[in-house]
Structure formats: C-alpha cells, structure tokens
Amino acid sequence: MKFLLTSSGITNPSIADALTELLGKPVSESHALFVPTGVYPFPGGAASAWEATRGKEGAPLTDLGWKSMGVLELTALPTIRRENWVPAVEEADALLVWGGDVLYLTHWMRESGLADLLPTLTDLVYVGTSAGSIAVTPYNCDAEFDLEFVPDGSDMGESAERALGLVDFTVYPHLNDPDMEDTALANITTWASTIPIPTYAIDDETAIAVVDGEARVVSEGEWALLNGA
Prior knowledge:
By secondary structure, this protein is α/β, with parallel strands linked by helices. It has eight helices and ten strands.
C-alpha cells in the first residue's frame, strides 16, 4: 500500500507530482473514493463534509480532475453487505481521507472493517489530509483536542493517544499555523519527545510519501523530523 500524507491536501505542484507518481498514471485517468467521516463531530460538521466533498473547503483533494469520484461513508458500512462496498475500495486507485476528529475517524475505520482491509490493497494510494493522515500513524497527536468531542458515555476515548499504526512514524500537521497555538515547533517538539518513534512536523505545503515502508518528504514549505524518545 502507498501513502501520501498531507497537512492540507494537494496544495502545490511538488505534492501533485508525487500523487501522480504514486498513482502511476494521471489523476484524470484515476478513480477515487472520498471519506468525509472524520469531520462530523465538529460543530457544522455536516456542512463541512458537503463542502469538502464538492471541493470547496480550501484543501485541494476532490477537485483535481479525477476520472471518477465516489463517497465512502464509514458510518454506513457496518449496515451494508461487504460484497457491496469492498469491491469499490479494491477497484479504486486512490482513497481520499478527509480531516476532522482522529478519534472518530479511527473508530469508524475499525468498526467498518476498512482498517483491516487497507493493508491488503497493495496498489491503492491512501491520500490523507490532516486527521486523515494522523489516523494511519501509531500515535494521535490530537488526542487531547479530540476528547472534547467524544459523546457522553462512549468508550471512544479509550486509548485516545493511539491510532491505526499502518506506518511506522507519526505526523503532526499544520506546522506553525498562526491559528493553532499547539502547532508551534516548540510545542510539537515537546509532544514528540514523549513517544518512541519519529515525528514529522509538516506545514500545509508539505507531504510524506510512503512506498514499501520507505518515507520521503515532499515539500515547498516547512517541515522538521523529530526523533522522539
């Protein structure tokens, strides 16, 4: 399986070129599925999901000129026969996973069965945006924030600091975003020192491409590799 883990989508030519390279063909010849699920827990989440699906949320992803586009709604999958949705994922060239609440997103990736299916899809390109990128790493850098949106009485917050672990490093997106105090490099460095694996701090002009477990940075902006504990 291949990954393109971004902070804010396909924001510059270098990241766009990396996507084409991972796909092995132009976007215009590629079929994609879009996952909006992670944004629902936030106020206005339903509207944000629609705006993201139609490519109007300011992070280029669904509006890149794909040959075809479908929506994979994770909360619906447990109520659908697997033979009616798994083939769509298996046949897709790219899975575009939107941001939002990492806890909610990883919960439904597990509950839907998608988390178990993903490692078997060797040709699929997983394109993450923000929380969609964090979700496939071993550690959730947004755990404290995400817990604010866990429903009362839910066990969703158990082991909040852990994500799916499909790659062997963590990602901390939105480096030095002026609207997010926790994304200052000093704060990220402090958090990264508490975990035993490397952390990539990336801004919105940076992505991490992963093929066969090998990661490389694609950037027209700022990034840092923090080695952790």
